[in-house]
Amino acid sequence: MSNTPQPAPVVSEHQELKARNVSFAWEETPLHWIPGDPFTGHTINVLHLLLPAGERWFVHVYKQVLPYIRDERLREDVIGFIGQEATHAAAHDDVLPHLKALGLDPTPYTAQVDWLFEKLLGDRTLPPGRARRWWLMERVATIAAIEHYTAFLGDWILNADTLDARGADAVMLDLLRWHGAEEVEHRSVAFDLFQHVDGGYRRRVRTWATAFTALVFLWQRGARFFMENDPTLADGKATFGAFLRSGRQGTLPTAGAMARSIPRYLSRTYHPSQEGSTAQAVAYLASSPGANGGR
Question: Is the pLDDT of residue 3 over 50?
Answer without folding.
Answer: no
